[in-house]
């Protein structure tokens, strides 16, 4: 059994290196690209590259491919931190959206704009550390734990990743009217849930022999509820910051 696990870890090592190296660049660049588009194209890019699901699932895949749990955590955290830094570096040095504002007394608001970006960067770096560690551990469990524990880890990963989409759909349900913006949000939310389902299904299949479907369903149900509540808190804190 140990030989089999070692062989599987070795087989995944090249993919682990590539995915870990590319995650910061791809997520950071594409999340920035989503900000520069609008309409349905923006909704799609947000779901695939700039949603909580997309970033959490990236760390999940890194954890799944990692040779061990410790490296899964380090690489998962590092990948999301790197992506966050790339994204905000592009805002500061490329789009420079913090420039051009003016205070009521006529003085430039550039310093306040930079301070706002710095606060957002700090907030999302903290989130990246937590999410990278959690999803890294879950990815490692999906790959190497027993069938029952692996199924539970897959269910938790799905629930936490899909929670951002579920949260957005619940927010939309409270809207009085419906317009193009609501449609884009609904499309993006549905895609994040579909993305979570696809990635977890693929990782479960790559794991090999599997079972405990009931455990997976139970873990997914509970974690999606907890994750959705957590997103309400994240959104509240982010707004305050």
From TrEMBL:
The keyword Membrane applies. Keywords: Membrane, Transmembrane, Transmembrane helix. The chain crosses the membrane at residues 15-34, 40-65, 72-94, 114-138, 150-173, 185-203, 215-234. This is Uncharacterized protein.
């Amino acid at each position: 059994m140990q030989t089999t696990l070692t062989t599987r870890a070795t087989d995944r090592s090249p993919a682990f290196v590539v995915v870990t190296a590319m995650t910061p660049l791809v997520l950071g660049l594409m999340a920035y690209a989503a900000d520069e588009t609008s309409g349905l194209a923006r909704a799609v890019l947000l779901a695939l590259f700039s949603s909580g699901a997309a970033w959490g699932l990236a760390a999940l895949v890194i954890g799944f491919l990692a040779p061990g749990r410790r490296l899964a955590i380090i690489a998962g955290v590092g990948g999301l931190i790197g992506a966050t830094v790339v994204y905000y570096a592009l805002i500061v040095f490329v789009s420079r959206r913090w420039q051009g504002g003016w205070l009521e007394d006529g003085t430039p608001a550039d310093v306040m704009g930079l301070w706002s970006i710095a606060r957002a960067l700090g907030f999302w770096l903290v989130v990246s550390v937590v999410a990278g560690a959690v999803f890294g551990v879950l990815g490692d469990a999906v790959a190497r734990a027993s069938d029952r524990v692996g199924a539970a880890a897959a269910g938790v990963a799905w629930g936490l990743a899909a929670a951002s989409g579920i949260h957005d759909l619940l927010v939309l349900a409270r809207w009085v009217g419906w317009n193009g913006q609501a449609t884009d949000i609904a499309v993006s939310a549905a895609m994040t849930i579909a993305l979570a389902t696809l990635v977890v299904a693929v990782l479960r299949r790559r794991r090999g022999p599997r079972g405990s479907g009931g455990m997976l369903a139970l873990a997914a149900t509970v974690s999606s509820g907890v994750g959705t509540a957590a997103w309400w808190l994240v959104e509240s804190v982010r707004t305050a910051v």
